[in-house]
Design goal:
The chain is of the alpha/beta class. Helices cover 51% and strands 15% of the residues. The chain has a 4-stranded parallel β-sheet with strand order 2-1-3-4, sandwiched between helices. A 4-stranded parallel β-sheet has the order 6-5-7-8. Helix 8 packs across helix 10.
Length: 239
């Protein structure tokens, strides 16, 4: 199976190891991974800030970049959910909407692709630690991916899992929200960290780099002994 990697801005700039882990997982699952060099931002920052014309320009470029791909896989539910907005952006342009629909149909978040497309729930990972999982808003509420990460984590050897209290609440990142509403965002992430501490987990796992950057940054500033890991890093962990 040939898969095009959509790396996303945050993974590319801040978490390149997540991209590496994603590729290694997919190759281990017998996928041929290619990287279209022309890919850029998905347009979400512009779109969420109301700059829809600029977001459409980016969306057109991304549609063209991945036009020849069989499957597009990304380690970010948030960015994949933005691609699902492309048909709405081009709702009045029949040709572009059809191309946007085609991209949506073949684009998946990493865990979604592994579980729903490859039909695999055990990737052979091993991580002997106690962990909890943050359910990011865009991935669960907009993309609708809720079960796939849990199915994969259940099969990680040695992983003791603790459910996160109030897991449905936002961590306070929200992209531009954390920049524009700093005091509110700070209180939200503080509350999230309090719930993480309640689980007594050594590791916080998430599937969106934005959320992990926000929570992990606050954890570091507070000097908490909690490690933050992207789910790709967990699924690529071995004995």
């Amino acid at each position: 199976m040939k898969v095009s990697l959509f790396i996303t801005c945050l993974a590319d700039v801040f978490y390149p190891g997540v991209g590496k882990d994603t590729v290694e997982i997919l190759e281990r699952l017998n996928c041929e991974v290619v990287f279209p060099d022309n890919q850029t931002c998905c347009g979400q920052p512009a779109y969420n800030s109301g700059y829809h014309k600029e977001a459409k320009d980016v969306a057109k470029h991304m549609i063209e970049t991945f036009a020849a791909s069989d499957y597009v896989v990304s380690p970010s539910g948030s960015c994949v959910s933005m691609i699902h907005e492309y048909p709405h952006l081009f709702k009045d342009e029949e040709t572009l909407k059809a191309k946007a629909d085609a991209l949506v149909a073949k684009t998946f978040e990493l865990t979604q692709f592994i579980v729903d497309v490859l039909k695999i729930e055990d990737v052979g990972a091993s991580l002997p630690t106690k962990a909890t999982y943050h359910t990011s808003c865009h991935m669960t509420r907009l993309l609708g991916v809720k079960d796939a990460p849990m199915k994969l984590l259940e099969n990680v050897e040695g992983l003791e899992f603790a459910s996160l209290p109030n897991k449905e609440t936002c961590c306070g990142f929200g992209g531009t929200f954390s920049v524009k509403m700093v005091p509110i965002s700070e209180q939200m992430v503080n509350e999230k960290i309090e719930h993480i501490e309640e689980t007594e987990a050594e590791v916080l796992i998430g599937a969106d780099c934005g959320c992990l950057m926000n929570i992990g940054g606050r954890i570091e500033r507070q000097g908490k002994p909690i490690k933050v890991m992207h789910i790709a890093q967990v699924l690529n962990s071995k004995k």
